[in-house]
TrEMBL record:
InterPro entries: Semialdhyde_DH_dimer_dom. Residues 3-64 form the Semialdehyde dehydrogenase dimerisation domain. Gene3D superfamilies: Dihydrodipicolinate Reductase, domain 2. GO terms for molecular function: oxidoreductase activity, acting on the aldehyde or oxo group of donors, NAD or NADP as acceptor; protein dimerization activity. It comes from marine sediment metagenome. Pfam families: Semialdhyde_dhC. This is Semialdehyde dehydrogenase dimerisation domain-containing protein. Coiled coil: none annotated. GO terms for biological process: amino acid biosynthetic process.
Length: 83
């Protein structure tokens, strides 16, 4: 159900949902600079395919994709006693 998607994403660690199309509010790259979270918005049904949706995802790729991700992987390995 499309209405469940924002709540599912909101409950995911490190994900913030900004999705208020009636107020023209959704994630913008300039607003996520320097932040670790991944921002999701503009959640809507994809009318070109059954059981598909479109979402707008924005993150500080250097920070989340490299620096924070490295720390999260190391923490996971430590938790699992792999290092």
């Amino acid at each position: 159900n499309l209405n469940d998607i924002p709540e599912i994403l909101f409950s995911s660690p490190g994900v913030l949902v900004i999705d208020k199309p009636e107020d023209n509010q959704y994630p913008m790259p300039i607003n996520v600079y320097g932040k670790d979270e991944v921002f999701v918005g503009r959640i809507r049904r994809d009318f070109s395919r059954d059981k598909a949706l479109n979402i707008w995802v924005v993150a500080d790729n250097l920070r989340k994709g490299a620096a924070t991700n490295t720390i999260q992987i190391a923490e996971y390995l430590i938790r699992k006693n792999l290092i």
